[in-house]
Structure prediction request, 122 residues.
Amino acid sequence: MQITSHPESHLVVIRFVTDTSLTGEHGAALVDAMKAVVGAAGERFALLADCKGAYGTDAAYRAATGEFFGHHRDTARIALFNLGPVIRVVAEMFRVGIGLHLKTFSDDGAARAWLRKEGIRA
Prediction:
């Protein structure tokens, strides 16, 4: 997993360089990166994820990321693209179960356009 933080624009970008099933270790790294871009209270921040290569998650990953995003459901924006079928289901469960501002897209351009519409410099 390649993580790039952009604190000035309150954005984290992740990509998977090999096929990956996400574990608690991945979840902790993602949460740490997200904490680095959280702005002032009430300020929006975002995750842009190219999910190509991600094919599953474990309970520890879902717990770590679910807890973080649950605490920030009003200000976090999550844009995902290139989702496989399992990750698509997991994302939808997060969106509905936690009440996240999460959308899936077919490509990077559409995902970034939505984030810009949501006030993120993507």
Observations:
- Strands lie at 2-6, 11-15, 20-22, 45-50, 54-57, 76-81, 101-105.
- The first helix runs from residue 24 to 35.
- The radius of gyration is 13 Å.
